[in-house]
């Protein structure tokens, strides 16, 4: 992968990569799966952060079962997201020399091993997509 375009914005990075892989079903499928994982993780993160603050019983605490389930889902979706990101980037690196350094992940290469960095990247990716949406 080329490092000369490593610092491009997330929307531009996504657009460039989408155009690069647009004629190959394998990376298109991997990209769609990755973007689905980003959305799922974001959903469970928002659910955990908002629903756990809503009292569910007379003591004012959310139910322990709900807390455990939301945290479990958030962990699972982050692990899936990290795995899907690595798989997509590995495929991109092997088959598309013109892809930006780091693939879709725009952080330092070693940061892809840090779940918090991947979660932050996913949030930034969704915010960038939302900001650049067609209105």
TrEMBL record:
It comes from the Bacteria. InterPro entries: DUF3232. This is Uncharacterized protein. It comes from Geothermobacter hydrogeniphilus.
């Amino acid at each position: 992968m080329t490092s000369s375009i490593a610092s491009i914005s997330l929307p531009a990075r996504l657009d460039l990569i989408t155009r690069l892989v647009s004629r190959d079903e394998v990376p298109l499928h991997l990209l769609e799966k990755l973007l689905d994982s980003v959305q799922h993780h974001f959903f469970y993160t928002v659910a955990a952060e908002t629903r756990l603050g809503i009292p569910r019983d007379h003591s004012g605490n959310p139910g322990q079962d709900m807390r455990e389930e939301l945290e479990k889902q958030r962990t699972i979706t982050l692990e899936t997201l990290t795995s899907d990101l690595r798989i997509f980037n590995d495929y991109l690196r092997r088959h598309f020399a013109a892809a930006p350094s780091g693939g879709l992940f725009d952080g330092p290469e070693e940061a892809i091993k840090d779940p918090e960095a991947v979660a932050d990247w996913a949030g930034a990716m969704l915010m960038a997509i939302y900001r650049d949406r067609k209105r």
